Amino acid sequence: MLSTFIIALREGLEAALIVGILVAYVVRTDRKHLLKPLWTGVAVALVLTLGLGAILSFTSAELSDRGEELFAGVTSFAAVGLVTWMVFWMKRAARNMRNELHGKVDQALTGGPISLALVAFFAVAREGLETALFIYANFKTVGAISSATLGLVLGLALAVALGYLIYNRSVKIDLSKFFTITGVALIIVAAGVLSYGVHEFQELGWLPGADDFIWDVTPWIAKESILASLLGGAVGFDTTTSWVQILAWGAYLTAVLVPYLSNKSQSTKVAVSA
């Protein structure tokens, strides 16, 4: 639940801020008649995101056991790659995001409402598709679908509420600290997803050491227990974890967290007001 909540909150707020910047600029420049195509683009992006989530779930359910292991492993690695790219991209690009989006809106206006709808679509779709893939991969590590779904719903609801309040200047949040902290949390969750992907490839026989466990705590913590699910979703804990998994988990955290937390002068600052 905690991991899906963090993912949904972080990604949802990013999308909400992007939409807020677009809406604020359109309103400030007295182009309210263009709000309809803008929201249409946002709506299509959300439908596409839900569609990708449904396709991933349906495909996984229809595969054989071996095919499902391959699919889960590949999607896990892909999700880790996308999320890693995203947190660094957000850290680097957020400072100029408002001006960049304003420029895209101005350029789109020469092509009419459809061009503006496409700007909104691509701005939101990028966040949505990354979120759908990462949440699907995280769902596989959590195991407890009901609690993970609750975390997803709560995270998205809070993200939308915060985005609206920030747009109306009802609340002020230090977005630099927010995105830094949630970025670290996402990287930790991604390490767990990576460990899960390694496990799936070990089950396929494509990676060694499937039975060489660094620990096996199943006599004390049931694999399907709430505690195991919470720890699995949050930090990638598994009751039976191999040496290869823990090495991959530690190597990823070291390789990603060190550069991410360095150079604090490039901290994230996002303004929503037009």
Largest sheet: 2 strands, antiparallel
- State the end-to-end CA separation: 35 Å
Task: Write down the secondary-structure element order.
Answer: HHHHHHHEHEH
Strand order of the largest sheet: 1-2
Q: What is the typical, i.e. mean, pLDDT?
A: 86
Strand content: under 5%
Q: Number of helical segments? A: 9
Helix content: over 70%
- Integer tally of domains: 1
> So what's the overall shape?
elongated
Q: Report the strand count.
A: 2
Structural class: mainly alpha
Low-confidence stretches: none
User: What value does the Rg take, in angstroms?
Assistant: 20 Å
Give an overview in words:
With 274 residues, the protein is mainly α. The protein has one domain. The chain has 9 helices and 2 strands; from the N terminus they run αααααααβαβα. A two-stranded antiparallel sheet has the order 1-2. It starts with a helix and ends in a 13-residue tail after the last helix.
Give a short overview.
This protein is mainly alpha-helical and about 270 residues long.
Secondary structure layout plus pairing:
Blueprint: H1 2-28, H2 35-62, H3 65-93, H4 97-109, H5 113-142, H6 145-167, H7 175-204, E1 213-216, H8 226-235, E2 240-242, H9 243-261
Antiparallel strand pairs: 1-2
Helix pairs in contact: 1-4, 1-5, 1-6, 1-7, 2-3, 2-5, 3-5, 3-7, 4-5, 5-7, 5-8, 7-8, 7-9
Short descriptors:
274 residues; two-stranded antiparallel sheet; 2 strands; elongated
